[in-house]
């Protein structure tokens, strides 16, 4: 769990959401379309994140179609464990297509704040460490894998499980976040906290991870770990 790559960062001061507004430029190239995201509250300066695309059909929901597609491929797969290699490649292809519509500075988009379910990882042991290894999954049945991102720079990860089918427990991590550039973040996690039944204790030491945000909207967030693992996060309702 100490090697978990569930991390995000923003320099915002509060959990204001981005509001999407489409802007169509009447230029010599009518197919050029740009999106802008602005913060609602006036107590912080408006942050503008934009991306240009060449396909005007995006306005009718192309990114939404891709989001629906990737979620349909990873739902009910034990976060990707039950997918074949070919199915994982399909998930990767959709993620690469979605990346084309990512805002310019995803680490500064306030949509990152909130609670997220980890619904997919191309490497099963990245989110959860040994608890998600082939042997670990035999002993620990994962119930929930949640990441909470809190302003201005805190992330809390929690994996809840059932040990041997009857003993409930959870592993939690708390980290402090730092933006490395417009897409990459770094997080320093404190030692993991393990709770099993009435027992609760801390073990191990600090850990450091890096993650690139490749796409974010109101429903999902995509991330790529420093070792190439693909993550799909779905916002909790």
Automatic annotation (TrEMBL):
Cited Pfam families: PAP_fibrillin
GO CC terms in record: chloroplast thylakoid membrane
Keyword Ligase among record annotations: no
Keywords: Plastid, Transit peptide
Places the protein is found: Plastid
Domain Plastid lipid-associated protein/fibrillin conserved as annotated: residue spans: 68-233
InterPro entries, per database record: PAP, PAP/fibrillin_dom
PANTHER family: PLASTID-LIPID-ASSOCIATED PROTEIN 4, CHLOROPLASTIC-RELATED (PTHR31906)
Similarity field: Belongs to the PAP/fibrillin family.
Listed name of the protein: Plastid lipid-associated protein/fibrillin conserved domain-containing protein
Organism name: Populus trichocarpa (Western balsam poplar)
């Amino acid at each position: 769990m100490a090697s978990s790559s569930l991390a995000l960062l923003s320099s915002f001061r509060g959990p204001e959401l981005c509001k999407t507004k489409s802007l169509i430029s009447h230029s010599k190239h009518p197919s050029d379309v740009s999106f802008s995201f602005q913060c609602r509250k006036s107590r912080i300066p408006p942050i503008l994140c934009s991306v240009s695309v060449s396909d005007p059909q995006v306005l009718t929901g192309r990114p939404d179609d891709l989001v629906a597609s990737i979620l349909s491929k990873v739902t009910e797969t034990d976060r990707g464990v039950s997918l074949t290699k070919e199915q994982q490649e399909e998930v990767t292809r959709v993620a690469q297509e979605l990346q084309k519509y990512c805002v310019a500075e995803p680490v500064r988009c306030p949509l990152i704040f909130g609670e997220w379910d980890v619904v997919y990882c191309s490497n099963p042991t990245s989110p959860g460490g040994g608890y998600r290894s082939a042997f670990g999954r035999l002993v620990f049945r994962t119930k929930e894998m949640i990441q909470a991102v809190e302003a201005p720079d805190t992330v809390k990860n929690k994996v809840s499980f059932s040990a041997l089918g009857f003993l409930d427990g959870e592993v939690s991590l708390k980290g402090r976040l730092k933006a490395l550039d417009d897409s990459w973040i770094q997080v320093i996690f404190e030692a993991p906290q393990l709770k099993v039944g009435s027992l609760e204790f801390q073990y191990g030491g600090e850990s450091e991870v890096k993650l690139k945000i490749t796409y974010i909207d109101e429903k999902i967030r995509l991330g790529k770990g420093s070792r190439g693992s693909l993550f799909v996060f779905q916002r909790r309702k």
